[in-house]
């Protein structure tokens, strides 16, 4: 029911709006997702940027304390003095990194690899390791493994950052940075092991293989990572590997391997060897060696920091791209939705305009073209249904098909109307033919009656002839009614003007109960001869209705007066009257008579009023019905000035009698006779007062 009340435009817009809204929702969701990813990338970049200084500080602090602790355990007295500030530096680095690592863990949605507990646990054991080292009770291998574990936990934290990376490129960058960090850590471990072995004069509890493994690893890893970095970072790594410090450190490591390998071989060699070979001299002094090691370590950590900044820049670029993509996606979806909606509005408006034009042309077809064709058919015009067939050209789509259906229906209606008009024209021709034949017979009958009346002198027979004359006159009026209804003219005409009094008296003479009609004063005016017959017929129908629809003992009055627009003739009865609805309906019919048809006439038995309407409309005479003072009906007939002849005397004529009148004799003008005398008088002849000139 609700959809039935919606217009075509609303339905079309709803069809376009639903997918548009769906597209908007999808676009907003996509844009929101991209914005969320952008925010994550920004947060990740900012958290990593904040963690870089603490990360490097922790790495350097762990490497420093590990190197000093191993040297102290190997018997280097100078290392013990530097342990206190190194330990304080490591504690501060621990606290800073734990605080800053909270942001990295918030970015990671997986919540896997929470390193805070690991750092706290190692931090708790750190005091015991330090105490054992100070007391000389901690094996060097345990101290070495403990400090390595500290940085291994940091490595796990780096993996958390890698998992939380905004995209695969940034995650790959984090992995490459981790490889650089592992290489730097391997270099620091090998240097710490070398120092402890030099201080101890040979391999300690940590095997020489560990030193060889760590030193070999960082050389290979740096070379491998350099091949995967971009041009700027590769250049820095290549410059490091080509530097003198790198060469000095490599030479020192090779010399240490040779020395300690030879010492191990002498220790495990044949017991027959009585003398030991003097160790080969090292290529660098201890300060030069540590200076080169520190420079290489710093350069590798610088490369790691530079790479981290590069990765952060990639994350920021990813965030920026996500923002741009979100804006483009949101804007594109919104623009597309608006475009789709505008296209839907345009298409809906075009369809509505076509439908409105179809409605306008269809209404014009129904209200103008078809009625004009029907009027032409009623007026007797020759209409070709094929040539006058309506045309509604609206294309070949569904609207065009609907227009063709309307066109087909209108064509079928037009063809039916033409067929009906031809049938009605044939029926009307037969109708008029029969009416004219009846009129000729009645005229012949009246002529015979006139001849018989002139020859007859017996009053009784003469009265009988008068009655027959009256009945023939009524029959003539009925025949004229049929001719008028059929669209013809009765045929009686006068060339010269006739007084109104004679017109009224002739109309009264054509009624059955003429004796009940009293004529009051009428003006001395004349009516042009061309309308006399129709006025007599019109007034006779009104008088006949007045006598037919009023009690037999009541009186009907006919009088008239001159008014501004012409002459008014009033016919008043004392009957039961009409309802207001019937009065309004009959007055409408008298003002605008409908087309003659069986359907029109069969619904109402008052055929005379329809004849009155046709006659009054043809001559511009106004006829209106109203309630009389006696409760009956007053018929007011206004004869316009255009139907009056010359400058007639406007004085009132005395009322005329309704006594016996002979057709063709002048009408006497005595005072009105009493009702009893009128009722006993013989019937008047029809048109007895029209003596000025016989009809043509």
- Provide the low-confidence segments as ranges: 110-117, 649-654, 656-696
Query: What's the alpha carbon Rg, rounded to whole Å?
Result: 65 Å
Strand content: 5-15%
- Mean pLDDT across the residues is 76
Number of helices: 17
Detailed description of the structure:
This protein is mainly alpha-helical and 696 residues long. The chain contains 17 helices and nine strands. The chain has helices spanning 8-73, 77-107, 116-135, 140-163, 168-200, 208-228, 231-241, 244-268, 286-378, 398-455, 459-485, 500-509, 532-548, 580-591, 598-602, 607-619, 675-680, and strands spanning 498-499, 517-519, 522-523, 526-527, 556-563, 566-572, 622-627, 633-640, 652-653. It has a five-stranded mixed β-sheet with strand order 2-5-6-8-7. It has a two-stranded antiparallel ribbon with strand order 1-4. A two-stranded antiparallel ribbon has the order 3-9. Strand 5 (556-563) and strand 6 form a beta hairpin. Helix 2 runs antiparallel to helix 3 (116-135). The protein is rod-shaped. 32% of the residues are buried.
Short recap of the structure:
It is built from 17 helices and nine strands. It has helices at residues 8-73, 77-107, 116-135, 140-163, 168-200, 208-228, 231-241, 244-268, 286-378, 398-455, 459-485, 500-509, 532-548, 580-591, 598-602, 607-619, 675-680; strands spanning 498-499, 517-519, 522-523, 526-527, 556-563, 566-572, 622-627, 633-640, 652-653. The chain starts with 7 loop residues before the first helix and ends in a 16-residue tail after the last helix.
